[in-house]
Amino acid sequence: MRKTVPFLAVFMCLSIISHAQSPTPKRNLKPSDVYRLKNLSDPQISPDGKWVSYTLSSVDSVKNKRNADIWMVSWDGKETIQLTHSSDGESQARWTPDGKYLSFISSRNGLTSSQIWLMDRRGGEAKQLTDLKKGSLTDYAWSPDSKKIVLAIKTPSDTSKVKTPKPIVLDRFQFKQDVEGYLTKAPVHLYLYDVATNKLDTLTKGEYDETNPKWSPDGSQIAFTSNRTEDPDRNSNTDIWLIDAKPNATLKQLTKWSGRDFSIDWSPDGKQIAYLRSTSAENYIMYDQSILCVISKDGGEPRLLSKTLDRPVTAPRWAKDGNSIYALVADDRTRYVAQFNATDGKMTKVVTGNKSFNTLERHPSGSFLTTMTDPQTPLEIYALENAVTRRLTKHHEDFIAKISLATVEGFTSKSKDGTSVSNILYRPANASKTEKLPTIFFIHGGPVAQDEFSFDLSRQMLAAAGYAVVAVNYRGSTGRGLDYCKAIWADWGNKEVVDILGAADYVVQNGIADADKLGIGGWSYGGILTDYTIATDTRFKAAASGAGVAMISSMYGVDQYILQYENELGSPWKNFDKYVALSYPFLKADRIKTPTQFMVGESDFNVPSVGSEQMYQAFRSLGIPTELIIYPGQFHGITNPSFQKDRFERYIKWFDKYLKK
């Protein structure tokens, strides 16, 4: 006789099953999520094409540090393996061309300087290959026969690794640089390392830097970039040079453009070199966009393949057949993959869309490897086959599955002078499109950069706190042509502010933003524009100025931008009126009404802390609500994970105080 099951029991069982199968509710992003996000970089394809190595950086929240390890993923995307596990960090993984080993740079095991380590690709512990006694290793590349390595080594300074440092004696035109600190004469030179004998031969000498070494396919020559003008500190020049891969060889200058030539890639047959060069031939280059070029290894006039495109090109990589070159193109909030005919420069768009591609590497099959991000997906590695992307890594899949992210859309505003400006709007998850929201304008730095349809943690974080967030690609940004980029030359804080205010008018008039609850913030040039904007218009009820400066007249010789001052503004003793005019946020601080939070890294040489300190002091003197946050030991970029979390918490608390009353 069959036993019946009570209805209530069946109902309860079905309820339990239904509950178990229901998706886990998503939550909003929060500042502590900085500990969960990973950074992928430097993907490299194995010679047989079966594996891709890359560096994965993750946060150890207990130690409050970010650590980088080497991973690899199979080309079919089915297998992912972590290769290194040390707490010292590893980077710049490179496959030996014979496919037997994977090398990387690390200072593990208590080393005082970085060395090259070698790991059998079949497994086992890595062993130290080099034992460099002097200088610091900055770059390296394997010869095609796997028998030699070209090393780029920075000469040690007199004050390095000394218990009682000597006085720093400076005699350079540009004498300071963020992260590097004060600049002494410590050039980067190329050396040839023999793997079998451990012999180190000098390739280049002198007072100049040699960087980005690239072997010719036959292993006979090395191409590199160098500025060998009379005083490299006084210009932005770099040229491409060639040297035979043997000691005491003679250098050959390949390019002679007075601007910048860089980003070298040899053609498969070794007869040509693809590279990038600046549009401008001026001594100082900032407002610029790189042009894709090809030149014979024997010299001559280059072919300027993308000269008429009027968009910046990056990451050139030859196609397998040598008839075309793939590259990335930045264009109006996107970065797409394009193919250029190597003879006439005819361009074909390969992969486009509201996304941002960041790297390109050629696969032995002729396909490509790339990294890509979109507004809902942090950067991951993809195969690019027949113009179709196939995802290889999924390091953020679990993270994204649990988070409700802002919806992202583009819009175009019109400034009061008629200029069309491209913007991006982040709307909080599940927010009604009919609701007027408190809105923060979070302004990008650069200024020569652009906000793209990519995953942006800062704007997503502010949106998760309940704000509409607006990214403005003001004049000075890339992606809209050279004239748009150069429009702010020697005229800072004018057209950019006009464009920001035009975007503010748009979101208010279209019912997106609450006109009484507008905020503004940014870092670096975004912080500078925050200062300029609140000194121009009082509509913003709160501001967060990060690593900014408002008194330009006080910064000559204080930051790292001496070339910019000299070439855009001229010397202060000749053009002091210009410096004063550009200092209006500080000199007219008494007309500012916006409560403002100032932040900066203590050791920032890019935009030094004095810029934030001056504005903070002015606000305190005037009685305008303010606070100053100094992050100890930090440079221009805040890298300490707990400080990154702290910055987001302070942003949200500050804006909530004034925009959510």
Q: Per DSSP, what share of the residues sits in E-state strands of 2 or more residues?
A: 25-35%
Secondary structure: number of strands: 40
Low-confidence stretches: 1-20
Secondary-structure-based class equals alpha+beta
Biased composition (Polar residues): 218-227
Keywords: Acetylation, Hydrolase, Protease, Serine protease, Signal
Pfam family, one: Peptidase_S9
Region (Disordered): 208-232
What does this structure look like?
- By secondary structure, the protein is an alpha+beta fold.
- An eight-stranded mixed beta sheet has the order 33-34-36-35-37-38-39-40, with helices on both faces. A four-stranded antiparallel beta sheet has the order 2-3-4-5, with no helix packed on it.
Brief sketch in words of this structure:
Residues 454-661 form the Peptidase S9 prolyl oligopeptidase catalytic domain. With 661 residues, the protein is α+β, with helices and mostly antiparallel strands. The chain has an eight-stranded mixed β-sheet with strand order 33-34-36-35-37-38-39-40, with helices on both faces. It has a four-stranded antiparallel β-sheet with strand order 2-3-4-5, with no helix packed on it.
Structural key phrases:
35% strand, 17% helix, Rossmann fold, alpha+beta, disordered N terminus, eight-stranded mixed beta sheet, 661 residues, 11 helices, single chain
